[in-house]
Design a protein that fits this description.
By secondary structure, the protein is α/β, with parallel strands linked by helices. The chain has a single domain, classed as Alpha-Beta Complex (Spore Coat Polysaccharide Biosynthesis Protein SpsA, Chain A). Helices cover 34% and strands 22% of the residues. It contains nine helices and nine strands. The protein starts with a strand and ends in a 5-residue tail after the last helix.
């Protein structure tokens, strides 16, 4: 029997998009998965929509207090029983072969972490800039300068590395988590194939690069323990690479 995959999803006010996300999981060619959805006290119909799907693999938890995406992901991770950990935000989308391809690569090549290409789409899931390409081996060193790993397109093997939780006091919690993981494994491997869609919503925090430079600085200063000068150096690199990553001119 194939190993269990635990899908980690935080959601908050996702009623507009959650059904497309759910359908992308139900369409997976790899069927041995559990989906641990943690709702962060949504005020819309998100929970009611999820409850309509009568699939025992979908495991919903509704929090009593809003604690942010990092906390919600951690609540799902605490319940996860699978060998492989995958992340899917409540407005993103996987192609049907996503889980099968990602787990198959890790099994065949005996690696701890893989990531793939993903489409960068508008709210209607139509591409608006070129796909982000998984074309480099990821290490702790190069991940300091730019975060090539996105939750929608990355998977890791808990049998080889254990579970990694998200810092709840950082607005850049995914970058901190990936850096902590890359401290204990030599590298993450790319799969140069587009198998996911990332929805670039107009009100997304991740789109407001100018507003999160301070948060990114704290990734290095507070969570990595770097000096002020070293933290400023990596923040400048991250800002430049972020511009290149999302600029239509350079992509």
């Amino acid at each position: 029997m194939k190993d269990l995959v635990s899908i980690i999803t935080p959601c908050y006010n996702s009623a507009e998009f959650i059904e497309e996300t759910i359908q992308s999981v139900l369409n997976q060619t790899y069927e041995n998965w559990e989906w641990l959805i943690t709702d962060d006290l949504s005020k819309d119909d998100t929970v009611e929509i999820i409850k309509k799907y009568n699939d025992p693999r979908i495991k919903l938890q509704v929090l009593e207090n809003n604690g942010g995406a990092g906390n919600a992901r951690n609540k799902s991770l605490e319940r996860a029983q699978g060998r492989y950990i995958a992340f899917l935000d409540s407005d993103d989308y996987w192609y049907p072969e996503y889980i099968e391809t990602m787990t198959g690569y890790m099994e065949e090549h005996h690696v701890e972490l893989v990531y793939c290409n993903y489409s960068r789409c508008n709210e209607q899931l139509q591409p608006i800039i070129k796909d982000f390409l998984a074309d480099k081996v990821v290490t702790f060193s190069n991940l300091l300068k730019t975060c090539r790993l996105a939750p929608v397109s990355t998977m890791y093997d808990t049998k080889r590395v254990g579970k990694f939780l998200f810092p709840v006091k950082s607005k850049r919690e995914d970058h901190v988590m990936w850096l902590n993981l890359l401290k204990v494994i030599p590298e993450g491997m790319p799969i140069n194939k587009t198998m996911a869609k990332y929805r670039m919503r107009e009100n997304s925090v991740s789109r407001k690069k100018k507003n999160i430079i301070k948060d990114q600085y704290l990734v290095y200063k507070d969570f990595m323990g770097f000096s002020t000068l070293k933290s400023l150096y990596y923040t400048a690199n991250w800002a430049l690479n972020g511009f290149l990553k999302y600029s239509k001119i350079f992509n």
